[in-house]
């Protein structure tokens, strides 16, 4: 199948060409015809599969073939994070080619004035639920003209507690509309929600739980106290073009990023304590290759589309299989190869095995001499364990461990 089979408007075909897409990805192949036919769609797909274009292309086609001169947005896309909203908006703009379709983002962290001003002259609004609810409550905008609703990363929006806001937004939409819901996972809560919102939805599944197959999964067993030295070692061995490192806390993302920068790496961080301007600066620098390493927390890294990411490192293990799937989805995108490396303490081994089982992937163990966690460790050095990096006088050895038993990816 080729894009020509969809008979898109020539301006959209020009947009597809300028994005460099040659053939539709599986989710595009399955979803585009359904959306063009007007069905409600429930898509079970991770980011990295081409799902943004899977909904953006048919939506743009519908906008171009309908010559209504009505003012006000026709399409509302809800996304969990500001970064993802900006990214979706960018995709709409690029895919629209030279067509005169106006799109706008409605997100927190920036002034409301320009968003309110641009609202009615935009056909597509990509919003984070929180900010949109505030604008609706102030009476600054209304959604009476919307006939297509997209809920992207619905599972994440649910996890982030956006459900009450989403319900408030949906209550303001016309009842007659097309609904498209995309989610990387389909827990019962999402199924129940979808049942209420979607009308006779067509279900599309792509790689329900398994990550993109171009990703190689590795783990190092270590102790919490040795993670940063181990990371140093992995960095010195890996040929990474672009690396995304996940930490559990904002504080750790910031301090680890600073530490790596002090050791001479081009590093930035992305975490929720940063202003919107700082986040965008960090993200652009990472995307454009000014920084080869980004240390981030889950909350902001979700959905980030950066083609160049060759390595994702779980400095701290994620708490759920879904989060592992999302993190790893940042690499190996659009068929490129990627590496997923987890630093795992003894306590986290059962969690790692559960991820393997549920995702049906094999996560190979790698080891670097001097960094293995003793079998009886509980994530910390035990009293009797020998710390190979500690010198006889008790001070830490700064040199690299002597020998690698297996090379890092
Ligand atoms: P998404 O799943 O929407 O985050 O898209 C993942 C990546 O795939 C993005 O970098 C898209 O630009 C890219 N992409 C989307 N559709 C195609 C396609 N048909 N061919 C090649 N790359 C694509």
Characterise this structure:
This protein has 409 residues and is α/β, with parallel strands linked by helices. It folds into two domains: 3-206, P-loop containing nucleotide triphosphate hydrolases (Rossmann fold); 215-366, Rossmann fold (3-Layer(aba) Sandwich), CATH 3.40.50.300. Helix content is 37%, strand content 15%. The protein contains 15 helices and 14 strands. It has helices at 10-19, 26-36, 51-65, 82-95, 113-119, 129-137, 154-159, 163-171, 188-197, 227-237, 250-262, 276-287, 298-301, 321-328, 349-359, and strands at residues 41-44, 75-78, 103-106, 124-127, 148-151, 178-183, 202-205, 215-221, 243-246, 267-270, 293-296, 311-314, 338-344, 364-366. The strands form two sheets. It has a seven-stranded parallel beta sheet with strand order 3-4-2-5-6-1-7, with helices on both faces. The radius of gyration is 23 Å and the shape is globular. The model is unreliable at 376-409 (pLDDT under 50). It binds adenosine monophosphate (AMP). Adenosine monophosphate binds next to helix 3. Adenosine monophosphate is lined by residues 19, 21, 24-25, 28, 47-53, 305, 307, 333-334. Residues 258-276 have a biased composition (Polar residues). It comes from Pseudodesulfovibrio methanolicus.
Mean pLDDT: 85
Radius of gyration: 23 Å
Unique ligands: adenosine monophosphate
Number of helices: 15
Secondary-structure class:
alpha/beta
Structural shape = globular
The CATH topology of the largest domain is: Rossmann fold
* CATH architecture annotation of the largest domain: 3-Layer(aba) Sandwich
Biggest sheet record: 7 strands, parallel
User: In whole angstroms, how far apart are the ends?
Assistant: 35 Å
CATH class of the largest domain: Alpha Beta
- Tell me the name of the CATH homologous superfamily of the largest domain: P-loop containing nucleotide triphosphate hydrolases
Low-confidence stretches: 376-409
**Strand order in the largest sheet:** 3-4-2-5-6-1-7
Query: How many E strands?
Result: 14
Tell me the helix content.
25-40%
Question: What kind of oligomer do you see?
Answer: single chain
